[in-house]
Design goal:
The chain is an alpha/beta fold and 277 residues long. 53% of the residues lie in helices and 9% in strands. The chain has 13 helices and five strands. The relative contact order is 0.12.
Amino acid sequence: MSILQRILQDRESMGAAEQRVADYISKAPGQVIHMSMAKLSENCSASDPTIVRFCRRFGFDGYQDFKLHLAQSLVPSAPFAYEQIVANDGIENIVRKTCRNSLNAIQRVLEDLVPEQIEEAANRLHEAVWTGIYATGISEVTAIDAEHKFQRLGMRCAAIIGRKKQWMHAESARPGEVVLIFSQSGHTKQLVEIAIAARAGGARVVSITAADSPLARVSDTLVAVLPYDRTELMTPLASRLNHHLVVNMLVTAIAVISGSEFPDQLPALDSWQTDKI
């Protein structure tokens, strides 16, 4: 468990002054690692002894020890060879590291994905009378991409974006429908509750998320994608890229099931009939 996760978990057991410290660190960890204890005390309206007591609560010798471990926790921990981009990198390094990190992530997801899970998910989506596609935050981009590609296959589906709209659709879910959920961590409370509500109405839930997560445990079908650690802090390009790859795998698998002549090309995605300049 990361430092920020531990802070969030222990917050309710803290006194008022320590809660102010916890809230400030949770909202601006990148600023805190460059901040003196005096400045943090001023920003939180807390005393220096309160800051020290807060740090020792989590097993650190003092504020400097806490800052060191907090800084280390802000570096994404990747399940593959990952080259961090740093402030003094030139454009050549930025290009090289971005591409290499993405290639390494693709290689890792190739090793980790279970083809049978892709097949099961594709079959459920193909059989659905209607599919609602759910996501929050940066994963909303993946949901919209899936909507576009599935609709080109003739599937009845829609990306459901926004908390109120998601609840309205989830609570009215019916048998024959599928709820497709994208979540990097599988710990987002809103999406877990949506899955439970949809299943209560008789719909089936297909989740693209981390194995052994709360969302995975309330899903009918899981496509497990190993996430970065500390996804509450960062949503790295490589991790998002793997979710887009799963969308393309599902599209092609569904196209094969439905008898498409060009499942790997899907020419309708860029029709030659549109006007060109």
